[in-house]
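INTERNAL AUDIT FORM
Audit reference: QA-55
Scope: verify that the stored structure record matches its stored sequence.
Auditor: D.O.
Record contents follow.
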Amino acid sequence: MKLQLTNGYYVRFDQISRLMQYIYTNGNSTIPRQEIMEETGFSDRQLENLNSISIGLGLLKPRVYKLTELGIEISRKDPFFDNDETLWILHYIISCNPKYIVWHRLVNIVFAQHEMTSSEAIRQYFNDLKEYYSEKSIKSHLTKEIRSVLNAYTEQLFNRLGILSKHNNNSYVVGANVNVSFLSFLYMVLYYKGFIGWNASSIDIDAISTNPNSPGKVLNIPLKKIEELLDRAHDNGFIRLEKFGDLDQIRFDENLTKEMILKKIYGD
């Protein structure tokens, strides 16, 4: 578990964009940390936290300042995160990973179980962390981490997704309607297959609807909505929907990749 993903820093997409663009325009080769700081103006602590958040979002590779395939494509086609489909994909990637304990529990448990919540109510969902972290560490870092995640969905670019809004300074309203596109959802399904190591050419619709960390669970959307999104993917020739016994399945073309879906999203 990683208690300090953001280290209390807000998820500033403009700064993430600046970091990504510097790496991208320099050929996505390994760049010394000191050089990045000198050229971008980020302090050592800023860069450390931007790197941590960008890895969590699936934009940078761990341990080196290099873009992932997703990071490269976003740098090319949506460098300022103007496309909501980009934001939906990033929301899923960071929210489906249990390693990022605060972010994961907020999205998958707190947001999923409540129409309204508060900062005080949220803390009870982390009482068990006393078994893994010192009281000093929890007191110092947990509140900041919760604040950063809530800020990401209310004050930063994730607010465009309508997942969370501020009711007042201490309480929050969870959005009831998820307006995700079928292309973003299909990207999530392929990402989920890779995340759990599922190599088969088909997957049960029930698995992506109810399994922990699946797109349906992370987005907290009903089966009917999932079926509508998959129907659109089927009608557009990306997948085939099949019935196998009592199970409804998605069958994937062997050539379908996440990169192909990104090219469709960005108009390549």
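Auditor finding: record pair retrieved intact. The chain has three domains: 13-81, 88-174, 182-266.
Action required: none
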